[in-house]
Amino acid sequence: MDGSVSNVEICDFAYKGEFDKVKECILKDKTLAFKTDQDHRTALHWACSAGHADIVHFLLDLGVEVNLQDDANWTPLHIAASAGREDIVRSLISKGAQLNSVNQNGCTALHYAASKDRYEIALMLLENGADPNVMDKLQATPLHRASTKGNCRLIQLLLKQSASTNIQDSEGNTPLHLACDEERVEAAKLLVEHGASIYIENKEEKTPLQISRGSLGTILRRIVEG
Q1: What is the dihedral angle through the alpha carbons of 112, 114, 118, 122, rounded to the nearest 10 degrees?
Q2: What whole-number distance in Å separates Cα of residue 99 and Cα of residue 96?
Q3: Which CATH entry fits the domain spanning 134-226: 2.40.40.20, 1.10.10.10, 1.25.40.20, 3.40.47.10?
Q4: 226 pLDDT band (50/70/90 cuts)?
Q5: 9, 35, 59, 161 from 117: Cα distances, Å
Q6: Residue 156, phi then psi, degrees to nearest 5
Q7: Tell me, what's the pLDDT at 4?
Q8: Is 42 in a helix, a strand, or coil?
Q9: Fewer CB in a 10 Å sphere around the end CB: N or C, the chain?
Q10: Which residue in 95, 150, 160 sits closest to 122, CA to CA?
Q11: pLDDT tens digits, one per residue of 130-176
Q12: CATH class of domain segment(s) 1-98
């Protein structure tokens, strides 16, 4: 190595998991740890993406900015949560990662954990102060995300952490509307058991009951009627 490594190359080494190269380059030129590529991502963003915990720990110990946003406002925490990198999420949180930082879509790391069924990561985020009711640009909460996908353990976790069942997104849909529309029967039952209304109308003036198909409407009505 001659030391003449570019910002793009150091990011590439980090993504490929070439720890020895990353370490050697940065120990020769510490500024490389803080340089960004054309996507405004640092080596830390790329190591989080690919799940290289050794590189992540090395960079964090050097004092790399943990909350730096890329050109789409994704932080390393967004990336690690979305990619399902539990150990890395834990490390980022311990170094002061902002849990409620939002990207261009208004999403937090918890939105991605909820939609991708990353239970352990969602639990970590919530236990450390992530907001369960934060809304993205479409006014969808993590509970909307989990309900659309029918991620029942995630739904239970969010409800336990005071997620609101009846928040409406930009289309007027509650999480229950979305669960019913996608025929997520267990998710819909869970929501109604925790106070989700079957009578709230969305912008098309439809209630969750009206968009329920098959026997789902009957099941939900029975839960409400006790």
Answers
A1: 100
A2: 9
A3: 1.25.40.20
A4: confident
A5: 33, 33, 28, 16
A6: -60, -45
A7: 65
A8: coil
A9: C
A10: 160
A11: 999 999 999 999 999 999 999 999 999 999 999 999 999 999 999 99
A12: mainly alpha
Encoded tokens for 212: 């329920």
Which ranges of the chain does DSSP label H, i.e. alpha helix?
A: 7-16, 19-28, 43-50, 53-61, 76-83, 86-94, 109-115, 119-127, 142-149, 152-160, 175-181, 185-193, 208-211, 216-225
Q: Which of 129, 39, 26, 126 is nearest to 76 (CA)?
A: 39
End-to-end, the C-alpha distance of the chain in Å comes to 72
Give span(s): CATH 1.25.40.20, the chain. 1-98, 134-226
Tokens representing 189 are 């039952």
Please tell me what DSSP assigns to residue 150. T
- Spatial separation of the C-alpha atoms in residues 26 and 3, rounded to whole Å: 9
Q: What is the mean pLDDT of residues 32-43?
A: 95
